[in-house]
Amino acid sequence: MKHSLCLVAIFAWLALFCAPASGAVSGDGKTAYAANTAAEPAMAQMPDPTDESAYDDDDDYDYDDEPFGEERVTISDPLEPVNRIAHVFNDRMYFWVLKPAAVVYKAVAPEPVRISVKNLHSHLGYPARFLSCLLQTDFTGAAEETGRFVINTLWGIGGLMDPAAGKNINLEKQDTDLGETLGVYGVGHGFYIVWPVFGPSSPRDSASFIDEYLLYPPFYIRPWYASTALTALEYVNSASLRIGEYESLVGAAIDPYVAMRNAYVQYRMKSVQARQARSLLFKEETAGPPEVKEAEDEN
């Protein structure tokens, strides 16, 4: 119910946010893009959008005689006019709402507190990551996630600290979701979607909403506004730890929308490849990744 209300409010405000404005710019006047900061952002691992050679804006896959795993891909974008509206909406939500809140929050909350909030959010995401590892037949990853959960619950004060990541234990967090799980089994993106508030996605990767909500324990806290407040805190806390990354990522891009679209699909392709390499079913295969197979089918 609460998420339906949020979506209604989002679309009701679209008309306002689509009007020209001078405040939502960065760098040399180019519009910046605010991606989803509720979950762990992939921004730092995405290609540099200022490197125009990293992208090919046509609809074909680009092979540059690089080692396997370095293919660069694109995604179809039949909804581009609508996606650009959502892009502008997310941009202004970031600069007008999220970033100011994050700046104030950063000023009053010490960094150790903010890191603890981030650790707790990650800790509560264990059920989704564990399920994704199992479905990907990454049983080592599932065991590591379980070990992390037990250790951080008992010795990490319920997940506020992350002793499992220390050098002595070194249990790696499995950053995966159901969208990647579908990709491991060969399901292609389909087409590009920019969701208001939630950022870049696709029909396949929208399955990750199950991870972020239905498999996330705070989703079931009642009354509904209590869980909504926790979600808002997660957004603001995550943004406070990454202020400036959005601006530097897209500030020099010729077209930030295209740069973010290409960076997104490139990052997700590499994530699926990495998960395939851990899967007992696929790690021995040498064929191209699911996204490449999808392109071959389409062409």
Compact overview of the structure:
The protein has one domain (2-7, 72-298).
Q: How is the topology of this model organized?
A:
Blueprint: H1 2-17, H2 80-108, H3 111-124, H4 126-135, H5 139-155, H6 178-184, E1 193-195, E2 199-201, H7 208-214, H8 224-240, H9 245-250, H10 256-278, H11 290-298
Antiparallel strand pairs: 1-2
Helix and strand pattern: HHHHHHEEHHHHH
How far is it from the N-terminal to the C-terminal residue, by CA?
Answer: 42 Å
Major beta sheet, strand line-up:
1-2
Overall spatial form: globular
Main sheet characteristics:
2 strands, antiparallel
Class based on secondary structure composition and strand pairing: mainly alpha
**Measured on Cα atoms, how large is the radius of gyration?**
19 Å
Low-confidence stretches: 1-69, 292-299
Number of helices: 11
Q: Averaging pLDDT over every residue, what do you get?
A: 78
Helix content: 40-55%
**Annotation, overall tally of beta strands:** 2
Taken as a percent bin, the fraction of beta residues is: under 5%
Number of separate domains: 1
